[in-house]
C-alpha cells in the first residue's frame, strides 16, 4: 500500500487535489482510500462534506475525530475506536486490500504519517515561511508559487502544480501501472 500524507492550512486545495488523485488511481486500476483527520465531527454532516466528495470520486473514506473512526464505504456507515497510534500498519488495518491511501491532515498537527509520502500544500503562501510546516519534513510540494516551487526543487522535493494530481500519482505509483 502506498500512503500519501497531505498537509497544509485550511483552504489550500488538499481536498480537490485528493479528488484528482482518486480519479487518477481509478483510471489506473488502483483501489484508493482516504482518511481525514478532523478536530471535530458534526454527525449530521458525515457523508455530506469532504467525505462525500471523496466517496463520489471513488474512494473508501474514513474520518477521525476525538478518538473515533467513522468509515463510509459502499453506502455503509461504521463507527469504531481509532487505533492506539497512526502508522502504516494502522492504515492497512482500516483499509485492507487497498492500493493507495490518502491522508488529509494529521494526528500530530503538521506532521506526515511516518513512512508515508509527505506532501505539503502552499495555497496562497509564496514562501516557505507561509507553509504549515517546514519543507524538510516532506517529499513533495503542491504550489502555484514559482519561487516556492524552485525552493522546493533546490531542497530535493518533487514539485507539482495544483492541477497535477495525475502527475503525482504517476510519479509515485508508477510501479503499480
Could you characterize the architecture of this molecule?
The protein has helices spanning 14-27, 50-57, 88-94, 146-154, 165-172, and strands spanning 2-7, 32-37, 60-65, 68-73, 76-81, 100-104, 117-121, 140-142, 158-160. The chain has 177 residues and is of the alpha/beta class. It has one domain (2-176): Rossmann fold (3-Layer(aba) Sandwich). The chain has a nine-stranded mixed β-sheet with strand order 5-4-3-2-6-1-7-8-9, with helices on both faces. Strand 2 (32-37), helix 2 (50-57) and strand 3 form a beta-alpha-beta unit. The chain is globular. The chain starts with a strand and ends in a 5-residue tail after the last helix.
Core attributes:
177 residues, alpha/beta, Rossmann fold, 9-stranded mixed sheet, 9 strands
Secondary structure layout plus pairing:
Elements lengths: L1 E6 L6 H14 L4 E6 L12 H8 L2 E6 L2 E6 L2 E6 L6 H7 L5 E5 L12 E5 L18 E3 L3 H9 L3 E3 L4 H8 L5
Parallel strand pairs: 1-6, 1-7, 2-3, 2-6, 7-8, 8-9
Antiparallel strand pairs: 3-4, 4-5
Helix pairs in contact: 1-2, 1-5
Amino acid at each position: 500500500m502506498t500512503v500519501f500524507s497531505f498537509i497544509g492550512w485550511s483552504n489550500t486545495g488538499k481536498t480537490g487535489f485528493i479528488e484528482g488523485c482518486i480519479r487518477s488511481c481509478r483510471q489506473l486500476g488502483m483501489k484508493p482510500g482516504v482518511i481525514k483527520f478532523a478536530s471535530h465531527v458534526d454527525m449530521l454532516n458525515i457523508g455530506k462534506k469532504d467525505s462525500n466528495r471523496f466517496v463520489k470520486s471513488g474512494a473508501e473514506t474514513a474520518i477521525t475525530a476525538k478518538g473515533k473512526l467513522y468509515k463510509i464505504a459502499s453506502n455503509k456507515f461504521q463507527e469504531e475506536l481509532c487505533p492506539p497510534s497512526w502508522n502504516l500498519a494502522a492504515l492497512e488495518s482500516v483499509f485492507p486490500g487497498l492500493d493507495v491511501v490518502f491522508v488529509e491532515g494529521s494526528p500530530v498537527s503538521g506532521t506526515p504519517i511516518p513512512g508515508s509520502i509527505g506532501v505539503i500544500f502552499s495555497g496562497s503562501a509564496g514562501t516557505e515561511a507561509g507553509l504549515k510546516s517546514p519543507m524538510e519534513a516532506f517529499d513533495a510540494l503542491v504550489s502555484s508559487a514559482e519561487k516556492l516551487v524552485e525552493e522546493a526543487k533546490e531542497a530535493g522535493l518533487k514539485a507539482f502544480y495544483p492541477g497535477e494530481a495525475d502527475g503525482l500519482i504517476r510519479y509515485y505509483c508508477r510501479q503499480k501501472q
